[in-house]
């Protein structure tokens, strides 16, 4: 591949990853305001309230995400650190699904997966891949997939002196990382991403790879899946079926590509709009970790996840009936003034403390160490290879947009 | 170097631990994840006390608890 030839069809990347495109407008992609002032007001009124997050914030449009629309259930939302943390830690009362998961018989889809399981079933499924996602495996991800992807993308624009980092860089890295860990060639990476709502199509692409790895395993994630054995309640070990592998794949593709793209864009936008802080990171690469942790605390790309209430319970002074949906506004918790000083400030000097951007409880993000590795390798490579990297003074500076999926608008930069 | 004779004593509940690796990310010289994907303590005073407390707080399933201070080994 020539150094200046784009690895991906950027027009297609732009379409798949445009927050205001058909793909993402349903989650509030057209939302342009800063949601945090209202979330502060709501948290100050009461930590737990009846209603959906966007409704309580005065938005009359219907937005969809985890736990929405669920028209036949009462809805509640939590805004304080203590309440959000308590919900995450009590997975017996606050379950990840209203019904049992049925991977083999049910319809294939992103939520028909370990995302919606509970208790020991969730642990058994998650346990199959957890070790491939641990901090000790970060180097495996970096050396096998992340580093090569990052540098190949920079090769495409390094000579040009300008780039639009959101699409040309941030959007491409996570989707290529996760699809290549599945053994999917670059040319098919976008076919996969575009087919998330058509599991049959993804199965068609993955099936030959799964068959090949069953014959001859390689050093990649799909081989981990085809070789792993699930031990059932009676202690019998069995290899995963195609339906189970598809379920894992759909979840990892959905959860791992859009999120990391948007968070990387948010991090870069925050730094580029604060040139003194960008310079500080350039001078002291240890600050990159602080910048990434602060970015996920300050502006998590997915500000809300939801749980289903399993029994009538009094919670922070509110009566929650069994069967209600509880929306965890983790972005509001991440700026709770009870926990953080000057919470609205993007501050690299703040002590690193746990936040809820990757959730908590047994469903805490399995990809968080991979996401951190992608963001730190990518941003470090930009700083190393693009001297004088700064926002294009002629361009529109990036803004953060979207409601239930937040991300940056275009990030036009110049360098050299 | 932190004084290991006064290190925090942290207990790990291996049934609750689901191998998230978050303790490793906040206090990587103190905790590691073993081959059964469960947390272990590699050096009770591997990190400053503050970082170890952060790791305990970070554990998503409450598998870590401080059970005292004292001679660690
Ligand atoms: C910065 C990027 C990311 C953010 C902000 C993020 C955020 C989250 C959050 C908040 C949850 C918990 C959902 C809940 O409470 O129900 C979650 C779960 C999950 N994430 Fe991530 N994520 C990111 C990157 C990734 C990556 C790179 C992968 C995979 C390669 C991934 C895979 C998953 C999976 C599989 C789950 C479900 C885990 C379970 O239910 O046990 N995520 N993520
Ligand atoms: S943070 Fe908790 S669950 Fe995660 S590895 Fe450490 S002890 Fe285990």
Summarize the structure.
The complex is a heterodimer of chains A (416) and B (73). Chain A is 45% helix and 11% strand. Chain A is of the alpha+beta class and 416 residues long.
Give the topology, please.
The complex is a heterodimer of chains A (about 425) and B (about 70).
Chain A: H1 10-17, H2 36-45, E1 48-50, H3 53-56, E2 75-78, H4 81-89, E3 94-95, H5 119-130, H6 138-157, E4 162-164, H7 165-170, H8 172-181, H9 186-194, H10 199-215, H11 221-227, E5 229-231, E6 237-239, H12 242-272, H13 275-283, H14 287-298, E7 304-309, E8 313-315, E9 318-320, E10 325-329, H15 330-333, H16 368-385, E11 390-391, E12 400-401, E13 407-408, E14 412-414
Parallel strand pairs in A: 2-10
Antiparallel strand pairs in A: 1-2, 3-7, 4-14, 5-6, 7-10, 8-9, 11-14, 12-13
Chain B: E1 8-12, H1 22-26, E2 31-33, E3 39-41, H2 49-58, E4 64-69
Antiparallel strand pairs in B: 1-4, 2-3
């Amino acid at each position: 591949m020539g150094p200046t030839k784009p690895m991906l069809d950027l027009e297609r990347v732009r379409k798949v990853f445009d927050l205001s495109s058909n793909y993402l407008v349903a989650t509030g992609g057209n939302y342009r305001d800063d949601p945090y002032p209202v979330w502060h007001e709501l948290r100050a009124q009461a930590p737990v309230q009846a209603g959906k997050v966007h409704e309580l914030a005065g938005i009359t449009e219907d937005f969809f995400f985890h736990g929405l629309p669920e028209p036949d259930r009462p809805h509640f939302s939590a805004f304080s650190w203590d309440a959000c943390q308590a919900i995450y830690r009590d997975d017996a009362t606050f379950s990840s699904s209203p019904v049992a998961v049925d991977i083999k018989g049910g319809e294939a889809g992103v939520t028909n997966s370990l995302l919606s399981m509970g208790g020991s079933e969730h642990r058994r499924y998650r346990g199959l891949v957890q070790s491939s996602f641990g901090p000790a495996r970060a180097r495996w991800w970096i050396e096998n997939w992340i580093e090569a992807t990052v540098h190949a993308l920079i090769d495409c624009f390094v000579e040009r002196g300008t780039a639009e980092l959101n699409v040309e860089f941030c959007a491409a890295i996570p989707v290529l990382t996760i699809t290549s860990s599945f053994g999917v060639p670059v040319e098919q990476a976008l076919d996969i991403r575009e087919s998330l709502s058509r599991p049959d199509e993804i199965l068609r692409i993955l099936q030959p790879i799964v068959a090949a790895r069953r014959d001859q395993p390689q050093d990649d994630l799909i081989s981990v899946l085809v070789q792993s054995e699930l031990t059932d309640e009676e202690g019998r070990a069995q290899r995963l079926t195609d339906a189970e592998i598809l379920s894992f794949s759909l979840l990892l593709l959905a959860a791992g590509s859009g999120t990391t793209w948007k968070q990387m864009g948010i991090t870069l936008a925050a730094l580029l709009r604060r040139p003194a802080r960008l310079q500080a990171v350039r001078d002291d690469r240890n600050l990159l970790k602080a910048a990434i942790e602060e970015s996920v605390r300050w502006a998590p790309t997915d500000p809300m996840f939801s749980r289903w209430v399993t029994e009538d319970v009094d919670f922070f002074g509110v009566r929650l009936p069994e069967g209600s949906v509880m929306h965890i506004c983790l972005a509001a918790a991440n700026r709770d003034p009870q926990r953080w000083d000057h919470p609205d400030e993007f501050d690299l000097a703040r002590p690193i403390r746990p936040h809820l951007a990757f959730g908590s409880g047994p469903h805490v993000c399995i990809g968080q160490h991979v996401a951190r590795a992608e963001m730190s390798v990518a941003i470090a490579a930009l700083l190393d290879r693009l001297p004088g990297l700064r926002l294009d003074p002629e361009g529109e500076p990036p803004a953060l947009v979207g409601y239930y999926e937040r991300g940056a608008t275009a990030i036009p930069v110049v360098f050299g | 170097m932190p004084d290991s004779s006064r290190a925090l004593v942290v207990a790990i509940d291996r049934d609750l631990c689901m191998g998230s690796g978050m303790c490793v990310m906040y206090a990587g010289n103190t905790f590691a994840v073993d081959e059964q994907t469960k947390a272990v303590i590699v050096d009770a005073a591997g990190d400053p006390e503050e970082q170890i407390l952060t790791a305990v707080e970070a554990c998503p399933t409450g598998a870590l608890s401080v059970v005292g201070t004292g001679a660690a080994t």
